Amino acid sequence: MIKRWLKPGDILLIAMVVVPVLLIMPSLMQEAWNQPSGFFRGLARLAGVIGLSLMLLAAMMSIRLPYLDRLFGGLPRLWSQHRWVGFLSFMLVMLHAWGLSFSVITRGMEPAMTVLFPPLSYWPVWMGWLALALMVAFLGPTFRFAGRLNYQKWKRLHLLSAPATVAALAHTLPLATYPLVWWFLGALAIGAVIWRKVLSPSLGRFEYEVVEVNTLVRGVVEISLKPRGKPIQYEAGQFVYLTPFDDSLSNGVGEEHPYTLSSAPSDKYLKVGIKDLGDSSHAIQTIRKGSRVQIEGPYGDFYERHYPQKQQLWLGGGIGITPFVSGARDMAGQEKPAAQVHLFYLANDPSRAYFADELKEIAVKQPTFDLTLHLFREQGAMTAAFLQEHCPDYREREIYMCGPAPMINHLRALLMHEGVPASAIHFEVFDFL
Amino acid sequence: MNKLAYTTLIAFISSILTLVGAYWLVPSHAQSDSQGRIISLEELAQHNHAASCWKVIDGRVYDITDYIDEHPTPESVLTDWCGMESTEAWYDKGNGRPHSPGALALLAQFDIGVLAGHETAGSTTTEVLTQVEDQKTAKAATANKVSELMGEQQEMTMTRTAQQGYRDGSYYAESEPDSRGWRSLVEISIVNSRITSVYYDEIQRDDEGNYKARKSDDMNYAERWRRVSQISQLSAFRGYENMLILTGTIDEVDALTGATSSFESFQRLVREALTEAR
Ligand SMILES: Cc1cc2nc3c(=O)[nH]c(=O)nc-3n(C[C@H](O)[C@H](O)[C@H](O)COP(=O)(O)OP(=O)(O)OC[C@H]3O[C@@H](n4cnc5c(N)ncnc54)[C@H](O)[C@@H]3O)c2cc1C
Fold first, then answer.
1. Per-10-residue mean pLDDT for chain B, 278 residues long?
2. Under 8 Å between Cβ of B128 and B58
3. Which of residues 18-57 of B touch A (CB under 8 A)?
4. What is the second-level CATH architecture of the domain A2-202?
5. I need a surface site. Which of A210, A309, B9, B85 has the fewest CB within 10 A?
């Protein structure tokens, strides 16, 4: 049961914070009990220790190693944890500076000021300030202090986290009681960033070539990719980062974006269905055959099973149908699929159900796969009655959903209301922020 | 999450600004807090143990009692210097490296006043430390550090010392054994005509003249001594050494109540040793 909420990787993450805390605890306790102002100073130092651990952890979590993310319940879950970790770190770092200063305010303003603003020669303290300033700079847009930023700009700005981490380490190492822990965690954190930003573009990516561009409807293409070298190994429902190198593209050349693989793992070519949702996904609609793309991945654990004995209910809408296309294509090739599957394909109208024909074919051939089309324009929002009518045992199934956020929110509320346990509902939204 | 992060940041900035604003607006900080209490050598010498440990660094007195437990080195490394001039130990942790700048910021919290005779040494920890930093870069000779950082009065004493014309070098004197076989000894180092370090002890030698024991090692002895006079040789010896360094002349060193016979030996031996330095 607990495995559903706590992934093996989480234990590792928790340990990375608990170990430094345990190391520092004896000295903090002593300080806290022995000194009048020690209690608050101890708390402030503890906040600093946890804040830095979390900051380093956030950096480590950005390593994005294929397959490894499944230990953490898949990359999307890891990203949202990364966001929480970064958030907590930011809060604690502020508490740290504030607490150190205000713990000595009883001794007068002089010490309170000295602690925060010592002469410049006490550079470690100023390094701490630098780290905090950089944090504000790259977290400001993340937490939308001043509105929403363009994704690519946000990503570039987020790189300031690297110097911030170095500054935070420079702040801590000279002052730390156990610098070795910080050297270790710091090395892992910086190593992770170096892999992600410096090494992975040349070492972590696979070379592919565009061999087919199939326009499904206006604004949606399915691209087929042939490996130029070694192909990647993946499972249905996983996604990759795709970097196009077609110079004729008006946007997004050399820029990586996440796309779900719509092909089955046994297919000769990789396939991705891409919807025009912004600058680069718009440009890629006209990508040329024969052009080079790089693929990094696979990531995610879309069809993760919490109840291996249960039948499955799939709910896909809009471009969120892609993981189910992959899953259905995978089932089409199998003699005896692991579970009975019922897919509800949610679309506005028949013209927007661009994968429906192929899915129907699979449903005809594969007895363990059922398909129901739900058209918003005709039937309105999805209801429990509709589900009940077409899939009477839907409450007993393990449920997978993918699609626009409003659809997911609506369905989740509906299913929970019908008594489906949260642990039986998996979902992915194609939007990290 | 977004809102909370934003709100906290604003709260953080406001409270720091409030602190800075209050600090600059309250006019008293410059004068009232500037010097702190003036602390005499005698008072300093009383806080020479782990339960109450004061130290002098660059003319300012710090009560580091609460910090002893936190300090990374074994306790004795720290407590050995209680009640004493510790500037040198501050600038050389024993490995030739000074304490970290961050540690200095910490130190400021323990500032309790200024050592008598150092009232002009600088008004606050911060300022003193800034000066120290400046001087550190300006003059490399660590041996000079103690005297350089002292206030005017100290400078005068030092000039007097210099005028007395000691030659640089180390000087040693040892007395004949007393009725119970104890010999006093003193070693004095002079750099740039100033007394920079002093060692005083009382030792025993065997018949062949080989070293057997010294009082500064004998905790039982210290206990017995403390029972009759509150002070023991442990701090008395250090006290005399420090006073000599700080004042620069044996004439200015006063006897500590309860340790007068050692004082007499000290006085005699210092005079003897320094005759060689003329
Ligand atoms: C796990 C996952 C699977 C996805 N699968 C598909 C798919 O199969 N088909 C499909 O059409 N789309 C998919 N997407 C969405 C696709 O990645 C974005 O639409 C695309 O990156 C938009 O880029 P843009 O420059 O066109 O738009 P922009 O205007 O730059 O961005 C539009 C929005 O897309 C998101 N986005 C942009 N770039 C990235 C990025 N590098 N990483 C994460 N999010 C980003 C941001 O939230 C942004 O607000 C998936 C997204 C995720 C996270």
1. 90 91 69 65 84 85 80 73 80 65 69 77 50 43 36 41 68 87 91 87 88 86 78 88 87 83 89 85
2. yes
3. 19-20, 22-23, 26, 29, 33
4. Up-down Bundle (1.20)
5. A309
**A98 and B12: CB-CB below 8 Å?**
yes
Domains of chain B: 30-152 (3.10.120.10), 165-277 (3.90.1010.20)
Q: What tokens does B201 get?
A: 């002890």
Q: No. of H helices and E strands in chain B?
A: 12, 10
Complex-level ipTM: 0.84
Residue A359 neighbours by CB distance under 10 Å: 22
Residues in chain A closer than 8 A to B103 (CB atoms): 175
3-state secondary structure of B150: coil
A278 Cβ below 6 A of ligand 1: yes
What would the pLDDT profile of A197-231 be if each residue is shown by its tens digit? Answer: 999 999 999 999 999 999 999 999 999 999 999 99
> What is the Cα–Cα distance from B180 to B183, expressed in whole angstroms?
9
Q: Domain locations in chain A? A: 2-202, 206-299, 312-427
Chain A residues in contact with B109 by the CB 8 A cut-off are 37, 104, 107, 111, 114-115
* Chain B residues with beta carbon closer than 8 angstroms to that of A182: none
Domains A206-299 and A312-427 share a fold: no
Interface of B with A in 204-263 (CB under 8 A): none
Q: Given this structure, which CATH class describes domain A206-299?
A: mainly beta
CA of B108: how far to CAs of A105, A216, B62, B129, in Å?
12, 71, 8, 9
Per-residue model confidence as pLDDT tens digits over B229-255: 778 888 889 889 988 888 888 888 888
**CA atoms of A125 and A131, how far apart (whole Å):** 10
Cβ A142 under 6 angstroms from ligand 1: no
Of B12, B15, B100, the CB nearest to A175: B100
Pick the CATH number of A312-427 from 3.30.43.10, 3.40.50.80, 1.10.3720.10, 3.40.220.10: 3.40.50.80
A201 close to ligand 1 (CB < 6 Angstrom): no
Q: How far is A246 from A229, CA to CA, in rounded Å?
A: 19
Give the Cβ contact number of residue A22 at 10 Å.
Answer: 10
pTM of the model: 0.71
In this structure, the number of other CB atoms found within 10 A of the CB of residue A368 comes to 16
B159 CA from centroid of ligand 1 (Å): 77
Q: What is the pLDDT of residue A372?
A: 97
What is the band of A6 on the pLDDT scale with cuts at 50, 70, 90?
confident
- Minimum CA distance residue for ligand 1 atom 13: A259
